[in-house]
Structure formats: C-alpha cells, structure tokens
# Entry
Amino acid sequence: SEILFLFQGYQGMVDGGDNIVEVSWESVSSILQVGGTVIGSARCKSFRTRGGRLQAAYNLVQRGITNLCVIGGDGSLTGANLFREEWSGLLEELAQKGQIDEEAVKKYAYLNIVGMVGSIDNDFCGTDMTIGTDSALHRIIEVVDAIMTTAQSHQRTFVLEVMGRHCGYLALVSALACGADWVFIPEYPPEEGWEDSMCVKLSENRARKKRLNIIIVAEGAIDCHNKPITSEKVKDLVVQRLGFDTRVTILGHVQRGGTPSAFDRILASRMGVEAVLALLEATPATPACVVSLSGNQAVRLPLMECVQMTQEVQKAMDEGRFVEAVKLRGRSFENNLNTYKLLSHKKPDAELPMTNFNVAVLNVGAPAAGMNAAVRAAVRVGITEGHKMFAVIDGFEGFARGKIKEISWGDVGGWTGQGGSILGTKRTLPAKYLEKIADQMRTNNINALMVIGGFEAYLGLLELSAAREKYDEFCVPMVMVPATVSNNVPGSDFSIGADTALNTITDTCDRIKQSASGTKRRVFIIETMGGYCGYLANMGALAAGADAAYIFEEQFDIRELQANVEHLTEKMKTSIQRGLVLRNENCNENYTTDFIYQLYSEEGKGVFDCRKNVLGHMQQGGAPSPFDRNFGTKISAKAMQWISKKLKETYRKGKIFANTDDSVCLLGMRRRNLVFQPVAELKTETDFVHRIPKEQWWLKLRPLMKILAKYKTSYDVSDSGQLEHVAMHSPKEAETGAI
# Structure
C-alpha cells in the first residue's frame, strides 16, 4: 500500500502541494535515533476553522487518502476526531461547490483515524506512557544528577522547574527518581500552611547533615486556592525564612530535545505496528481509536473517551476537586503519588507503629542499576510500617559470615541515583551455608527476608524454602524483587537494570554507527550480554535499528546466516551505508562472534567491510535510567507492604511461623499488573539448564524487528490490542497492583 508523509502537521494538510509526499523504505532509514520529528510539526490556526478543514479534506481526496495516523498530544487528537466526525459533511460541501464529483464522495466516503499519543507531559488519559515522556525524564534526571554533584560541594538548595502546564507527571516522577525533598504539582496542591512544613523539613534535612535540598516545581503548580506557585516564589520563601543559598534552574525546552531513549524507541515501534493493524481492521462503524500501552500490554481506546477524560481532569482541577483529578489521571499516576508521599517524609518516631519485627534486605547476583533505589524504598517503607530494618552485606555469603547491621531512614538518602549495588552483591547460593545463615537469622531474630537480585536470587529462595523442613528459622515470609540486566527471571516481564543496560547498548550502537559516517560502507557485529537470554540482543536490535539479532531462543543455522549476509549485501548496494548485527553472547557455541565477523567479512568483500565490538561489562554499570529508578522504587515498596501483610497473617503465640508455598514469593510485572507468585509454582515455567523462562513475551516482537529490517515475514496479530473502554478505576483495582 502507498504510504505518504504529511509534512508540517495539519498546516501541511491544509496547504497541500509538496507537503504530501510518498515515502520510500530508504527515506526513513536512520531516523530512529533522531530526536524531535523529521516530518515537522506545526500548531495550525486554520485547521481550527471549518474552512481550513474543508481545504484539508480536498487535499486528502485529491491524493486518495482515507486513512490517517495522527501522532500528537491531546490538541492534535481532538482535532483529528472532529475532522473525522465532519468528514462526510465536508465532502458534501466540496461536491456542492463542484470541487469534487459525486463519484469521489462515494469512493472516499469514510475516513479512518488512529491516534498515537506523542507528548512529553504524559497528560493523556487512558495511556500509561506517552511517546516522548521517558526521553524527557532522561533529560531531567541528567540535569538533576549533574546538579547533585555541584550542590554536594556547596551546601545549596536547588529549585528545579520542569514542564507540565496542566499535568504534574514529569515533576512527580522525576521527584521520585531523584528523591527530591519536595514537589509541587497541579493535581495535588499542598495543604494550607505548606510554607511552614516545607521549611521545617528542609531545616531538619540540614540538621541531619544532608548537604543538598532539591525542590521540583511543575510549571503549572498551584496552591489549594488555585493560585500559581512559581519557582521564584519558592526560592524567595527559602531565602527569607531559612537564609539558605538557593538557586533556580528552569529546564525549559531541554526536556523536548535530545535523542530518544531505548524505551521510547521500542514503545513507538510497537505502537506504530498497532496503529497500522488498527487502521487495517477499521470499519465505518468502529470509533476513531488511540493505541496505547497499559502496563506492558498494547491496548486500543476510543479517542473521544480519552479526550473527554483528559478534559475532565482539567475541569476537576479548576473546580478544586483534586482527589478526583488524581484518580482520573489513572492508576499509574496515583501509584506514583502514593509512593512519593510514602518515601519522602519520615514521620516522627512517636507516630510510627511498633511491630517488633525485624526484616532483612539483601542483594544477590550480579550488580544491576536500580538495586539501590529498591533497597532505599524497602528500608523506608519498612520503617514506616514499624519494622526494624537490617541490611545484609555481600549477599548470602555475607549473611553466613554475619555481615548484617541495622539500617536507618537517613542511611539510604541519595541512593536512588547510584549505580551498582551499595550493599554489595555476590552470586553465591545459600545451599552450602544453610547452617550458618540459620544461625544468623536466629541471632538477629530476623522475621522476614527481602531479596533483590537476578536468577541466583530465585534459585536461592528455592533452596531456602526447601530447607524449611530442617530449619525453623527459614519458616518466615520471603519475597524476591527481580533485578538483573539480563531480564531472565521467570514470572516477570521486566527486571530492574534491564532498561539501563538497553540504553547503554542503544547509545553505543548509535555512536558506533556514527563512527562510520562518511567512510565506505561498513557492517558492525556487536556482542551483548544476557547469558542465554536474548532480551538485550533482541530489544537492543529493535531500538538501534539493527539488521539482525542472533539469539539462543530462536535457533539458526548456516543457511540463515547466509540469507542474512545476502540480504544485507543487497541493502548496502542502495543508498544505505551502514549495517548493524547484534549477537547474544551465548546464542550458539560454534557460531561465535568471531565466526560471524569472518563470515560477513568474506561474503561482503567488495561491497562492505566489517568491524566487531564486544560490549562487555559497561552494560552492568552506569547511573540507573529513570525507568529503573521508578520501577525499582515502586516494585520494592509493594514487596515490603506484602511482607507486612504476611507477618500479620503468620504471627502465632508470640512468633512468626510461615511454611506454606505462598509465603515465598516473587513479585513480577505480568502484562498489566504486579503479581506475587510462589517461587515453587514458577519452577514449571523455568528452563534451569539455560537459566531462562520457558516462555518470553518479547519473542512476539521478533517479526517486528525483521519487518523493520526489510524482511518479508508475517506478524502475529493475535496479541494486538482489542478496543476497550477507558475505565475510571475503582479502589479495588488499585490494589491489584498496576505499576
């Protein structure tokens, strides 16, 4: 089918002419890593008038266009919906004026519209994440991390103003991701007298030797009388009342710029497919829809319902119904707000409940970015719930050696943005130390365990629960939160650290591709980590626009390698200068990275030359991405709340006794929800030899990568989103645990 670009948005549709251009395969090559929009975008006054829309309809009919995919914010999508509703009327009018004939009116009687939400504010109801939000968070967090280092040296207070005229999402999530002291958002204005409580909190933090205060203000922040709270006002307040050296930083358009993050590239690619499928299935009877993501599940929602809901939020805020505004924003927003409130303010000791329970937290496996955010959340939620929190140093090995100490609220301050594992982590499994670990559990009177780690953490919990028959000490609630760059833990779609690693791979691939610009044609063979799990290779390939990704889960032979080389050679004979091939480290013991490199070098002689790169341990390092900070914080807080619930349930005659399967769980993200699953039940889903789950959701995205690399293949549509209604979520649903 013919694909056309409309340049300059609705303006281009109204102006017509050379704004409407047919697109070829090559014309969109290598735009994946470019920020902004290559086809331009413009606010268009004339499209807001009927005359403008009439002209646009004429231009579309002239080119025979009856399917539109609109990528934009709520304004653009509202306009698209109106355009569709008026379509038949506009054609009638054009026919009356004699600009088109009756034949055309019949032939082009229906206009199908599918929307994708591209907006950094994430202000569109019905979607968990809009395209561009994650990249904007990357920009904000980069700035905050940089400011943190300057403020550590000078005792300073920083007031950061972020975008969001009507929506506080960016402010809220960046406050969560950097552990800000205070945040101002339009949906949740501070209570009367906030000036006093904020100043008290800031001075308390100073007294605790915290050298840095960060306050985040959304540009649309208001107080409970709907009066604006500006960053200047906040600064003046801090200076007048506390005399702190205070600086304001307004981030402005930095947030719209830069190269898209890995999450945004994958989200946008998945949504693009969904949009095309929705257009192909559209009939005159189906409403115009928006494709979006709910958790990790693609969904379709009626465009008008989303627009109405988005307008409802604004109305609720204007009328001072703030609790309702937060609810209308959706469960993901509400969860962010509740988690932030839970973690940012320590209640005075006198107000905390006393449970007399001791809970230990440990990291197991290889380091993963975001582990520290998870530890921080666990410790702070645990303290809020009234428990004594203990940190175990160096995993199960450290546990056996008695490296365990109580950890306080202040000890974990500033941990969110730190990479690696501050507690220290080891791959050692507990089986050979059972006696010693049981001793330590008894000595320190540990009533529950929270393990943050990868596949070893999962194996470790299986071993501990098997040892319950012999040791009563292990008859306590235990929970695991998945954290590994490989994303190979059964029972969860995502694990903490995988997003950061993907961004590293994507950035590196972008640079590597750029290194060859201007030279002769070149193909790069890049080896990624992941053990036997192909997640990083496959998703990295999708995000970097690679030509092939070799993974263990999809066996390949010499014929396939040959077909790939020939395919790439053909492509390189066109205007395309660079090729990219990713290979998972364990995808095949004989077809090594060197073998593939030599094969491509030989077969590509005269057309392209080859280079190889092994990415190695840089994939485990670095500061955690906004996604990993946020995911780590929220999933860990939820795991801690589960521990509290289980402690209450299993407390009998003055002690804890838990020996059922459902008291050893893994908390994972499954499609749309966070689910607690007994580790015993996950055994059947696990391939223990290769340390991967037997079924993995992302394998369904394999054909998408191949299609984007110009292979003829079929895409499995069974998983595509079905049309649903936008739900005002009930309180019960909030408990099922959306992220």
Residues 4-129+260-312 form a domain with the Rossmann fold fold (CATH 3.40.50.450). Confidence is low (pLDDT under 50) at residues 729-738. The chain has four domains: 4-129+260-312, 133-256, 350-496+624-679, 500-620.
